[in-house]
Specification:
CATH architecture: 3-Layer(aba) Sandwich
Shape: globular
Number of helices: 11
Largest sheet: 7 strands, mixed
CATH topology: Rossmann fold
Low-confidence stretches: none
Strand order of the largest sheet: 3-2-1-4-5-7-6
Radius of gyration: 18 Å
CATH superfamily: Vaccinia Virus protein VP39
Length: about 260
């Protein structure tokens, strides 16, 4: 496995036990936590609108099973794939006795046959992949014709992304104390962000036609750190107003629902 993927795997393995609790609390205290919670609602809503009935859902980058229990409760049979084995241990616990299976794998070589999935979700993954084009091609390959794919990308236009890139680069160069797994991740991985227009065109070229989309995660640079409660209030307000193109240019995340057309 290449050093980049090894670093990603080690980081998420180290984060497995606390991942869900830190990002998906009962009541969000920060704008970032709120963005994770509303993203989950948006993904499940898009899936329900794009799939006529529950079938087999492939969750690429399933992590500790953030979506697993929700999908099972809605009647889906779940395949979960992740690069980090310890994440999958937590995911198996979240599935209980439900119809779910989990495997370690990479997005550019999905260990599933052609046209096997009725739906695919790929959330919080494309910032880390080896190849966006190969990942999209694999999603299209395993999805049945007419099937639904919900994919998330980091919006490169968002102001918060610039702040993150600056902090990421500074963090790679200035370290206090011994290196931890996040430090090692910074050394090996430059997190990718995408432009929504070119990305949806890439998907179109793979046979995935966009059926709906929205921006989300309206965090403001600096405010999220100096006044978390104020940033949370602003984020809630913009989410309630809707992630339209008018406000979407500074939404940190972009979600789209696709249909496989060929």
């Amino acid at each position: 496995m290449q050093s980049k993927l090894q670093s990603v795997r080690r980081y998420f393995d180290s984060d497995a036990a606390r991942y869900g609790g830190e990002r998906y609390p009962e009541e969000p205290q920060t704008c970032e936590q709120y963005s994770y919670l509303v993203r989950r609602d948006y993904v499940l809503g898009m899936l329900s609108r794009g799939a006529a009935r529950p079938g087999v859902a492939l969750d690429i980058g399933c992590g500790p099973g953030v979506y697993t229990r929700h999908l099972l409760d809605r009647g889906w049979r779940v395949w979960g794939l992740d690069l980090a084995p310890k994440m999958l241990q937590v995911a198996r616990q979240s599935a209980g006795a439900g119809p779910a299976g989990f495997t370690v794998g990479q997005t550019t070589r999905l260990p599933f046959g052609d046209a096997r999935a009725d739906a695919v979700i790929c959330i919080g993954v494309l910032a880390y992949v080896e190849s966006e084009a190969e990942t999209v091609a694999e999603i299209a390959r395993v999805l049945k014709p007419g099937g639904c794919a919900v994919i998330q990308i980091a919006n490169a236009y968002a102001p918060i992304r610039l702040e993150h890139r600056l902090r990421w680069e500074i963090g790679r160069r200035i370290r206090r104390g011994p290196a931890d797994e996040e430090d090692r991740l910074r050394e090996q991985v430059r997190l990718a962000s995408q432009m929504p227009g070119p990305f949806t065109e890439l998907c179109k070229g793979a046979g995935l036609a966009v059926r709906e989309s929205r921006f989300y995660d309206f965090r403001l640079p600096v405010l999220t750190r100096v006044w978390p409660r104020g940033a949370l209030a602003v984020g809630r307000g913009f989410e309630n107003a809707g992630g339209t193109a008018l406000t979407g240019w500074w939404g940190a995340g972009f979600l789209a629902r696709f249909e496989r057309t060929r």
